[in-house]
Amino acid sequence: MLDTLKIYNEFKEKLDPDVALKLAETFGAIYGELSNMVSSSDFNELKEIVRDLGNAQKQTEKRLDLLTVKVGELAEAQKRTEKKVEELAEAQKRTEEQVKALAEAQRKTEKRVDNLEKLVGGISNTLGYSLENKSYGPLKRILEERFGLKVKRLYRRNLVYASGKFDEINIYGEGRRDGKEIVVIGESKSQFGPKDVLRFLKQLERVKAYLEVDVFPLALAHQFHPKAEEKLTQLHIPFFWSYETDGNS
């Protein structure tokens, strides 16, 4: 606050008292105006600043609240995700255990199948060998009576090739017809199917190339599949049912 009395006293020592009073009053008035102007302007500006700061604070707090909510939601989502991951890991573990169990069951099944195939193969071979052994004598007479082919004897023989591989010939016999050398190559099975025909044809190709003589093929079985019968007939390969060679020793 401006001290006008002090100003007046200072001016009174050098000037006329009336002039000194007038100057002191003038300085007081000027100071008052300046004080009012500055205080009002500064106050209004300060109020605006405070209001802006308040609004900014409110907005910041609002954003902080929203951010807090979002963080909470993310944390909850993270928990759910972690729970799902744990559930998936557990499911994966169970799946792997099931796969291992299935693999073990498959291995056991394959082993049983292999054993069954060996058993069936052994039975089939036993039946086949029995069929062949009983058929040699009757077939020898049938070949001579029906086909004019004289064979010294029929037997089982392995033909070993240069590669070391070999073919087991179920019915083998060296004979002659019309003075010409002919080798009998027969395939004997308990059941003769279409695939057996194809295997027999491939075997005949190998045997012909190895022996380099005329071959007389024939098939013998307890049972022929209709398709096998049809194919053998088309190829003009004689085939005989087991009952045709029974009791003709």
How does the SSE layout of this entry go?
Layout: H1 4-12, H2 17-147, E1 150-151, E2 155-160, E3 166-177, E4 180-192, H3 194-211, E5 214-224, H4 226-234, E6 239-241
Parallel strand pairs: 4-5, 5-6
Antiparallel strand pairs: 1-3, 2-3, 3-4
Helix pairs in contact: 1-2, 3-4
Describe, in plain words, how this protein is organized in 3D.
The chain has 249 residues and is α/β, with parallel strands linked by helices. It has a domain at 125-244: Trna Endonuclease, Chain: A, domain 1 (3-Layer(aba) Sandwich). Helices cover 67% and strands 19% of the residues. It has 4 helices and 6 strands, in the order H-H-E-E-E-E-H-E-H-E. The chain has helices spanning 4-12, 17-147, 194-211, 226-234; strands at residues 150-151, 155-160, 166-177, 180-192, 214-224, 239-241. Strands 1, 2, 3, 4, 5 and 6 form a 6-stranded mixed β-sheet that branches. The model is unreliable at 119-128 (pLDDT under 50).
- Judged by helices, strands and strand pairing, the structural class is alpha/beta
Q: Return the CATH topology of the domain at 125-244.
A: Trna Endonuclease, Chain: A, domain 1
CATH class of the domain at 125-244, named Alpha Beta
Termini separation (Å)? Answer: 153 Å
Shape: rod-shaped
Unreliable spans are: 119-128
Helix percent band: 55-70%
Order of helices and strands: HHEEEEHEHE
Would you identify the CATH architecture of the domain at 125-244? 3-Layer(aba) Sandwich
Q: Give me the Rg, rounded.
A: 59 Å
> Which percent band covers the strand fraction?
15-25%
Q: If you average the pLDDT, what whole number results? A: 83
Compute the number of strand runs: 6
Q: How would you characterize the largest beta sheet?
A: 6 strands, mixed
Q: Helical segment tally?
A: 4
